[in-house]
Specification:
The structure holds 2 protein chains of 2 kinds. Chain A is mainly alpha-helical. Chain A has a single domain, classed as Arp2/3 complex 21 kDa subunit ARPC3 (Orthogonal Bundle). Chain A contains 6 helices and no strands. Chain A has helices at 2-26, 42-52, 54-72, 75-98, 105-128, 137-161. The longest helix of chain A is centred in the N-terminal third of the chain and has 25 residues, at 2-26. Helix content of chain B is 22%, strand content 32%. By secondary structure, chain B is an alpha+beta fold. Chain B has 2 domains: 2-37, no CATH class; 46-126, N-utilization substance G protein NusG, insert domain (mini-chromosome maintenance (MCM) complex, domain 2). Chain B has a 4-stranded antiparallel β-sheet with strand order 2-1-7-6. Classes of the chains: A mainly alpha, B alpha+beta. The interface between A and B is large, with 41 and 38 residues.
């Protein structure tokens, strides 16, 4: 019973993440910067982390970014978003575990957004091999503050509303 | 989940560590900005290198000439127009979608750069003119 619940919630969170990333891809670019996205899909990861723990967050991230990459049909895009999402999720998990009492979801998701952008830039550097790429770094870090805060507040709203939802049968 | 309960009370339910987190990211942004823009004390002028795909295609000596000069280079997507005036250089037109490079404005100090990634065009300012020790070059 527990496993069935778990798989269902996992599938639910992955589809929420996918739908959010599809919705986001229809928005005009937030700012004229490559990689400057709102990161709506990250909401699914953060919710998974705070409601079901680190392992679920990792699973949601891996499945969501692989599926989003396949749906978008771009191998380069898959590599970029997968690397960024994976490393930022790992960092968020570490922060969540280490600073559980001290840092709230807001700080965790802000650092997560910053990590995502930095790693994505590093991954892009591996592909393009152009030092000039690093000139985007300060802008990407700056933009990750409002996007990370937005994702944090949105996720907290959801987590608070869904409090009490658990893997155990009710 | 206990940390999500204490909304209200404090400022939007933020904790000290959250504010530290935001400050850290801000500091990282400022740090990279300072590193990339070169130290403030670095001299104006020098040499502007125009690179396409990482290869230097043109070298422009930045004098104090008030006259506007434009240079055209062919990037990956099309033409980029670079304008030089009074020892400063900027991207005037670019065949890219986002026009970030144009938004980067004028640069005039060694270490600064204007970058257009989509079109693979970079304007980079280097301090010395072929490493010579002379202060100015008259032409």
């Amino acid at each position: 019973m527990r496993d069935t619940r778990r798989v269902t919630y996992l599938a639910l969170l992955v589809s929420v993440g996918l739908v959010l990333s599809i919705i986001e891809s229809t928005f005009p670019p937030l700012l004229p910067l490559p990689g400057a996205k709102l990161g709506l899909a990250n909401i699914a990861t953060v919710i998974a982390l705070y409601m079901f723990g680190p392992w679920m967050a990792l699973e949601v991230t891996v499945l969501r970014s692989l599926l989003a990459g396949i749906l978008r049909g771009s191998v380069i895009g898959l590599f970029l978003s997968f690397s960024g999402a994976l490393v930022s999720t790992l960092v968020m998990i570490v922060l969540y575990v280490v600073f559980k009492k001290k840092m709230s979801v807001i700080g965790v998701s802000t650092i997560g957004a910053a990590t995502h952008n930095v790693v994505q830039l590093l991954a892009a550097f591996l592909l393009i091999q152009h030092v000039a790429l690093f000139y985007y770094m300060p802008y990407l870090l700056l933009i990750s503050i409002p996007t990370g805060l937005f994702v944090g507040f949105a996720s907290r709203r959801v987590v608070v509303s869904l409090e009490g939802l658990s893997l155990e049968a009710v | 989940m206990d940390d999500t309960k204490q909304r209200g009370g404090r400022f939007w339910g933020l904790k000290v560590a959250d504010i530290i987190a935001v400050c850290l990211v801000l500091a990282a942004a400022a740090g990279t900005m300072i590193v990339l823009s070169g130290s403030r004390s670095s001299a104006r002028g020098g040499l502007a290198l125009i690179e396409v795909n990482g290869r230097v295609v043109n070298r422009i000596v930045l004098g104090d000439d008030a006259k506007k000069t434009t240079y055209k280079v062919k990037g990956r997507n099309g033409e980029s127009v670079i304008e030089v005036q009074g020892g400063k250089v900027h991207m005037l037109e670019s065949a890219c979608r986002d026009k970030i490079c144009i938004g980067m404005g004028w640069v005039d100090r060694a270490g600064q750069a204007v970058v257009c990634l989509p079109n693979r065009v970079v304007i980079r300012i280097t301090g010395s003119q072929h490493g010579s020790k002379v202060d100015t070059v008259t032409e």
